[in-house]
Each structure stands twice: as structure tokens, then as C-alpha cells.
Amino acid sequence: MAEAPPSLILVDGSGYIFRAFHALPPMTRPDGTPVNAVFGFVNMLAKLIAENPGQRIAVVFDAGRKSFRNDIYPAYKAQRPDPPPELVPQFGLIREAVDAFGLPAIELSDWEADDLIASYTRAETEEGGRVVIVSSDKDLMQLVRPGVTMLDPIKQRPIGEAEVVEKFGVPPAKVVDVQALAGDPVDNVPGVPGIGIKTAAQLITEYGDLETLLARASEIRQPKRREALLEHAEAARISKRLVALNDRAPLPLPLAALALKEPDRAKLAAWLRAQNFRSTLARLGLDGGTAPPDPGAAGRGKPPAEAASAANGDAAPFGPYVTITDLATLESWIAEAHRLGVVALDTETDSLDAQSAMLVGLSLGLAPGRAAYVPLRHARARDLATGPAPEQIDFKSAVAALRPLLADPSVLKVLQNAKYDLEVLAREENGGLAVSPIDDTMLISFCLDAGRHDHGMDELSERHLGHRPISYDSVTGTGRARIPFSEVPIDRATAYAAEDADVTLRLWHALRPRLREARVLALYEHVERRLIPVIAAMERAGVKVDARDLKQMSAEFADRLAALESEIHALAGRPFTVGSPQQLGKVLFDELGLAPPGGRRARTATGQYATDAGVLEELAAQHPLPAKVLEWRQLAKLKSTYADALVHQINPRTGRVHTSFAMAAASTGRLASTDPNLQNIPVRTEEGRRIRRAFIAEAGHVLLSADYSQIELRLLAHVAEVPALAEAFRNGEDIHARTAAEVFGVPIEGMDPLTRRRAKAINFGIIYGISAFGLANQLSVTPGEAKAYIDAYFARYPGIRDYMERMKEEARIKGFVTTPFRRRIWIPGIAEKNPARRGFAERQAINAPLQGGAADIIKRAMVRLPAALAEAGLSGRMLLQVHDELLFEVPEAEADATAEVVKRTMEGAASLRVPLVVETGAARNWADAH
């Protein structure tokens, strides 16, 4: 039975303002006033009114920064920063918007909006009404109960009791007790130190409520938790008074005054026109019959959020969509795509592995709301023993019809994660279809917002279109009940697959115009987009591994693990399971009596002793057993991840291992290797070299390795403009010896290796914003000595300190840093109040332009290399990229010539104040080539 509609909708106006401001890209009205939050707010109101005809709606605001809670606890919200300058002028405009829509705007001095929402909710439900609170604010979740729900206005997700339990671990009635214990650093609610949401939920579930817990705190077995509760009991009580909403606030307007009234259409139209919200005017039918704005106009100066609205097709719904099951209909859609010049494309397959996936169907999107699915290899459902397969076009006929469109240079094909679709379509089993030219919405988003959020289609759709797409699980099932996509009924497959094409096209309209404004259009068009076919070719090529050698290696590693276990048991004085953290902790701390790091018995959240790598490294100074366990763990991981697993990851069709390179994973722009991860094989250990020896060339070929030398240090010398470092690089000097000579005042000739090692640790540590404590650990010196080294380094190279401060300041002001090649890398934690988290973000800000710059350079080289090799008449092919290294497979007779072309192309990929140097080597296996 359908749930009754709400009788009152309360909009958390203050909360939504901030969410809209951060969710939408910058935009201004003609006079330059920022309006992105206003635009988001207006469209949310318009949607809410349209979807709830006849329902009363009120918008509730905070009247000021202080409330009665500051009398209880003066520091309440005291550390909240001022709103961004671009948001300040939008507060008044949003109140104007509420008035233009004819809705009541409610606020009251000395009370927060949350208290007013609580009071109106109580008053309405006491009269038998139902309330929906439009907000995702966790503080309002305590109000959820029968007859009261919430709605996330950005994600359009309802929040009921189940969602509250999922977030807090307790039902809504207990939320206040959990919040009182956990506190809230954003609002400066003290809580109890050391107790987070998860622990608080466990305690409240066990003891029932806060007062019972505090009364029985002395019974708690964990000493640290018990002492914290006893010491901070009053802080917990104060915190509860701060987080509990007061539902007895005076009602500025009586319930009767919240009656629905139609807005003055002329007044609303005039106000929307003044803000230049043309798509909203069109959607509400207030534009006097003019056509909705052209989405492409965003690139000609139109605000990007307005373009996003137009891309969403304004009133164009998501579906229903067309199923194409005959050739004539397909040809008509193809003809329309040729006429329009842009078509969104998406494939449906039976596997996530592009090297083995069979094409089941594909979808086409021509305009917002106009998309279709073409089933090609759907089978009858497995529970139907007889009967024909679903109606669909003959596979070869469909491929023949699609081939000219997909290859037509005058029709842009828009995809999300294009690399996967291109690889699937290129396989002979799937028709051997070439697709060009292309745009990729995932990579467009990545160039704009790397580090800000993920770039999957569902995330982007919710963020930019306000639409949650149909999930894959909902059409195929999950776990053992999951069916292949080829068995999904055609109608359900159409709803899911065509929506993907529709969403992709709308995202393209919304996001692509922003590339020029953000000054990353060249990065996208000349690097990221051109890299897609290069990476796809690498993945298709794969790399050969010696299965016999891997099996022999696995046996060798097993013998070494057994020997290490024997040594560990001897050191422990008894046998135990080395891989068990619980048993290891008992041996280290209870039986050997080692002192935990920091002078206390560090335990995990489950109460076990912490035995992670950091703990074991510190314990190694006290006893030889921890170091042996670290060695055992590393070897066990290498055995399972590579020696054992790689044998099973050999593709039976090609006889090679095919990794997948994620192009939008690392915020710095680095590629990430998965399934298998070939970027985590240690370079400098014997075990790592042993694994690399199993990567071999085909008969008559060699593997050619080309590696940038000290590229991040060279970038540091470039961006920080350090004359001494630049000169050393230009002269081909030993950079670490030169640094030691500059910093420590010792001659290079006859330099003590330890001195050079210290300079090397500083050189590389500076790139990662190393602290004196971190450097002290690396060099086994006191923090005071390490600080003296760092101070001497900065005294000799002041440009580096200036660079570091400049990057931190850039991140604080803009929210992102940029590489020398204009890649934006967002640093979300730069404004954190927590010093540890903020320090981590500051180190990110220092390192990201260097690591990202190195990624830019090698990507620029990768884009140029296929053409350079072809122009030289060489047949070698690129197989792998591992950070600063590229691996090629080349005919033996072409090794020297290929090395020369590769070296020249890579060293010419960028022009810096210092030379780029590439070292090459060739051999039958990867280890000997490196």
C-alpha cells in the first residue's frame, strides 16, 4: 500500500545553501554576482513543488550564528570559519527566491533552524499530519519516526529509520545519546575524547541511554574507555544538551499560516529573469514560449550550472526508452546520429574483463531523454526450457550497420570510461569495431575534479544531474542469484542500458563546457583523451610470463617461508601461527614482554594488540622477531599475489597476462594497475627482482625498459627554481652527493657514503613534506639532529621552502594545486581543523604537483611514442607503464634503434629548466632489462 503524502514539507534552507554551493560549479549572473547556490536552491524548490502538488511547504533558516546553546557552552560553533566570500551575497538572494515562489520563510532570533524544524514537526504530527524534512543534516535524524521522514535534496534519497540506523548504529530515539558521546568537532561539541560514533553506538546499545552508561561507567572493562567516561561525564551531559533539538521553540508563524498559495507568476518570472535562470523559466513555462537555452552555449560564456540544467533536458524525463529489435529502426537511429553529429554510446557485456567480455547489446543516446537499447546476444531466461530467444537483430547485420557510424570522423561518440568499450568493440568476437572520434565523460570529470570525488557514472549523475541511475544489481540480482546480463529480460535491460547512454550524454553537456573555463581543455584533449587508445592497445597486448618459472618460484618462496617460520618460532620459544595478529600480539607483548610503541599497549578497535607494519618496525629495535615477521609477511604477500596468482591470470586465448590500467583513480593523474597490479612489485629487493625475471619476451624479442631518472627531483628543481640543483642536473652530477656537499659543507671527493645517504633521504623526503620525526626514523638519528639537517637544507635552498609554502597557500585559497602542465589536483582536507589531517593535506599539496607533473610527462611521452615508433619503421609495442618506467616488447634486431627513439621521445616530452634523462636497458626478462 502506497504511503500517504506528507501534509507538511519543511526545507532546511540553511543546510541546503552550503550543500548547493559546494555541489555546483561557479556561476554568476550578468552583473557578476555569484549565484551557483541560488541556482541549485531554486531548482530544488521548483522540483519539490512540482512533485508535491497541493502540499504545504515552508523553508526554515538560521537567524544568526549564535543561539541559546552559546549560553550553555560559549565555545559552541566558535571555530566555524566564515562562509566563503562568493556565498555571502547569495544568502539574501535565496530568501528572495523563497518569497518569489510564494513560500513562507521562517527564522527566529536565538533559535537554530533545526529547533524550529523540530517544533513545527511536533506541532504538525500532534495534529495527525505527516512531515517530510528536506535535508541530509545528521542532527535532524533524531526527529525521524513514524510519520516523519527526511529527504536528501542533492541525492534525492529518502532517509527513514533504516538509514538512520545504518549511519549511527542506533534508532533515531538514541541518536542524541550517541552524538553526545562522540561529540562534533565541526560544531565544537566536546563529547568524550577517544569515543567515536561506532563505539558510542555499541555503548548505548549495551547500556540503554547516556545517563545509565555514565552511572555504570566504572563497570567498563577497557581502562582507557572507562577513565575517559568517568573524567568527561559532565562534558557528555553538556554535549547532549547541545545536540538535542528543542521542539518547544516558539512558532514564528502558526501552522494555519503555512497554507499553500500559488506564486505570483509575473513576480517569479521577473525574479528568475534578473538572475539569468533561463532554463528554469522554460521549465516552469514562464519564458513566454521561447525555446530552452542551447546547452552548448556554456562554452560561449554561459554559466556552467545553467548549462548543466539545460543538459538535463530541463523537463526531459529519464525514460521510457526505445528497444531496437529490427534493422530498419536501427538504421533510422543511425541516420539521425549522422545528422546530429553527436551520439552517446554504451556497451553491455557478460564480463568486466575487457579481454574476454562478449558484447550482449549496446545503447545509443541522441538527446536528453531520447535513448535506445539494441539487444544483440540475449538468450532466453534459464528457467524457460523451451521457446524462442528474445527478438533481436542478427548480430552480423547489426555490426555491419553500426560500423560506418562508429568510424565516421564527423560524428562524435560520447562514452563513460571509453577505454573499456573501445577494447570490447575492437575484439574480433564482437565485430572488430573501431570507434573514433570519442569523448569520455569520466576523463572530462577527472581533469576538472581529480581528488574532489569519484568519477563513476552513478556518482557523476547524482552530483551533476540530481538523478540516481538504475543499479546493475537491481537488474541482474546479487550473489548466487545474479544472472548474466544476456538473461536479463529485454524490457529491464532497455531501462537500465538506455538510461546509461542518456545519462552519459547529459553529463557531456554539463561537464565539457567547464574544461575551457578551468583551463584544462588542452590537458584533456591532448593528453588524457589521446591516451585512451594507447592504453587500450597496451592492455590488449598484455605481457608474457613464464608459468613454469612462477611455479618454481612459488616452491622456493614456500621453502623460505617455512624456514622463516622455524626461525620465528625459535625466537618466540614456541610454535604459533605467524599470520595470526592475535597470536603474534600475545607472543610479542605477553610472552616476550616487549614495550609497545609510545610506551603503552596499543590495541586495535577490536581490543587486540596492534601488530601492523609500523608497530613491528618500531619493535624491531627491541628484539629480532618483529623484523623476521615483517620479512615473512612480505614474502607471503609476494607469493600469493604474484608467484601463485599470476599463473591463474594468464589469458588462455593469448597466453599472456593482461593488466587493466585505471585512468581516473589516483588524484595526481598517475595510472593505477589492477587485476593484476603490476605496479607494486618491489624494485630493490631480491624477491621483487625474482618476480620480474618471470616476465619474459616472446621468442626473437627482448623487453626494453625506459625509466625517467629522478624525475620528481628534477621537477622540484624546475618549479622551485633552485640554481644549485638545476646546475647539478645540467652537469650530470650525482645529485645526492651535490646536495650533501651544499648542505653539510663536505667535499664530493671521498664523501662518506652515510653522508650521501642522509642527503638522499632529505632530497626524497622533502618531496613528500617529511617531518623531522619522520626523517629521524629513516636515518636513526634524534629528531633534533633531523631538524638541524632540514633547517640546513632550507637555508641552502630557500626556494624549496618558498615553493612548499606557496603550494600550501594555493591549496588553502583555491582548494586545489596545479602541476606545471595545469593539471588540477584537489586537496579536500586542506581546511581540516584536526592538525594531523590538515598536516597530511599540506604534505599532499607539496607533493601532488611533483608526482602529478611526473605523471603528466610520462603520459605526454606515451601519447607520442606509437607515432614515433611507426614513423621510424619500428614494430615494438608498449606493454606496461609502472610510474616513471615504460616497458616495451621489441624484436631483438630493433632493440638499439627502438631504445634510441624511445629515449629521444621521452626526454623531449616536456621542456624544463633542467634536462630530462631516460635510462634504457634490454634483456630477455624484465629484471635484467631494468
From TrEMBL:
Please list the GO terms describing molecular function.
3'-5' exonuclease activity; 5'-3' exonuclease activity; DNA binding; DNA-directed DNA polymerase activity
What residues does the 3'-5' exonuclease domain cover? 321-516
The residue ranges of the 5'-3' exonuclease domain are 4-261
| GO BP annotations listed | DNA-templated DNA replication; double-strand break repair
Bias (Low complexity) ranges = 296-312
| EC annotation from Swiss-Prot or TrEMBL | 2.7.7.7
InterPro entries the UniProt entry points to: 3'-5'_exonuclease_dom, 5-3_exonucl_a-hlix_arch_N, 5-3_exonuclease, DNA-dir_DNA_pol_A_CS, DNA-dir_DNA_pol_A_palm_dom, DNA_polI_H3TH, DNA_polymerase_1, DNA_polymerase_A
The protein's job, in short, is: In addition to polymerase activity, this DNA polymerase exhibits 3'-5' and 5'-3' exonuclease activity.
The name this protein carries in UniProt is DNA polymerase I
Name the encoding gene, please: polA
